[in-house]
Design brief:
The structure is a single chain. With about 350 residues, this protein is α+β, with helices and mostly antiparallel strands. The chain contains nine helices and 18 strands. The strands form two sheets. Strands 1, 2, 3, 4, 5, 6, 7, 8 and 18 form a nine-stranded mixed beta sheet that branches. Strands 9, 10, 11, 12, 13, 14, 15, 16 and 17 form a nine-stranded mixed beta sheet that branches. α3 crosses α4. The chain is globular.
């Protein structure tokens, strides 16, 4: 795909960029450019066109744009790391491209060729590689997204769509040194249901989780755990992370993908690294009661969550109303897989599975 490049005439000053990269936070600062590819359906099935790189800035949308009224949008999240060779690499971008297309199909949005997806990342990093921070836990967070831009009021798939990529320097997601997180068990809200959009990475799923996340914060918790009340309160996922339990006899248990859980790229990678270690991986329904019993009798010896932003984070406590369940937290398996996964991503450990892709 041919991209036109229109460089930002007013980039962030170099000194200011250094200040930002020294303490980037998460998702609060953005690089100088954005990638845009437009899609239009004129009755012939639609086509992508006008691929370009231009200055980061506000999006001009008609007040009747479909995304504002019917939430027709999807997005992805990934990170770019600077390696010792000076190059900038990202982790399994084609897996993200494939997931975006699955999400797009569920939300009645067009498919973007996987190679065009990867090229859009390369085009952005070609002009914004100076925004990649260095240091432990630091990376440039990449946010590809697709929104319905056609101006109309009516419930049907939009005929005009915009695909974009923005980038934000990021530090450690939970801040400071790694420590077990406290999880609020949601009994008032569910994240998705059978036939819903739970397997799609779409904004509505996250909007629907915010009330539960607010409850978690009120109870001094870092994240919220959603359950499936239709299946004996089976564990689903956190607000934006997948869950893993490690057993005393060398098994790794994670909730199976039933269409209500997002298929995480980090989740899939953890499964592979666990199997490399000889662990038996069980993808099945696991209830909250089984988790609690396993902690009590010593069957479950570790618990952690994983996702692009935080990578791998040990779970320290589950707060279920007035009851607090002390989860085992960090253990040998959690630490080992986390160390290898981060090592692969940052270039410190051999990439045995060919997961890293050089962007710049």
């Amino acid at each position: 795909m041919q991209f036109d490049v229109i460089e930002n005439p007013h980039p962030v000053a170099q000194d200011r960029r250094r200040e930002i990269l020294a303490d980037p936070g998460f998702g609060v600062h953005f690089s100088d450019h954005t990638v845009i590819i437009d899609w239009t359906d004129d009755g012939d099935g639609g086509s992508w066109h006008d691929a370009r790189v231009e200055a980061y800035g506000p999006i001009a949308l008609d007040p009747a744009a479909s995304v504002l009224h019917y939430a027709q949008e999807v997005f992805e999240g990934m990170k770019a790391y600077r390696h010792a060779d000076g190059g900038v690499y990202t982790f399994r971008p084609r897996a993200n491209a494939a997931r975006m297309n699955r999400s797009a199909a569920r939300m009645a949005l067009p498919q973007l060729d996987e190679e065009a997806f990867v090229e859009s990342l390369e085009q952005l990093l070609a002009v914004d590689s100076s925004w990649v921070p260095e240091g432990e836990g630091a990376a440039l967070y990449l946010r590809p997204f697709m929104i319905a831009t056609e101006a109309f009021l009516g419930v049907r798939p939009a005929r005009e769509v915009s695909y974009r990529v923005i980038a934000s320097p990021a530090g450690n997601y939970f801040g400071g040194e790694l420590k077990p997180v406290r999880i609020w068990v949601s009994r008032d809200f569910t994240r998705s249901g059978p036939g819903g959009t739970g397997a799609a990475k779409t904004g509505g799923n996250y909007a629907g989780s915010l009330a539960a996340q607010a409850q978690a914060a009120e109870h001094g918790c870092d994240q919220v755990l959603f359950l499936d009340p239709l299946h004996e309160n089976a564990v689903e996922e956190l607000g934006g992370m997948n869950v893993f339990l490690v057993t005393s006899d060398g098994r790794l248990i994670t909730p199976q993908l039933t269409g209500t859980i997002l298929e995480g790229v980090t989740r899939d990678s953890v499964i592979q690294l666990a199997q490399d270690r000889g662990l038996t991986v069980e993808e099945r329904r696991v209830t909250l009661d089984e988790w609690a019993r396993g902690i009590e009798d010593g069957t479950i010896v570790e618990a952690f969550a994983c996702g692009t932003a935080a990578v791998i984070t040990p779970i320290g406590e589950l707060v279920d109303g007035e009851t607090t369940i002390a989860s085992p937290g960090t253990g040998e398996v959690t630490a080992s897989i986390r160390e290898e996964l981060l090592g692969i991503q940052t270039g410190a450990v051999a990439d045995r599975h060919g997961w890293m892709h050089r962007l710049a």
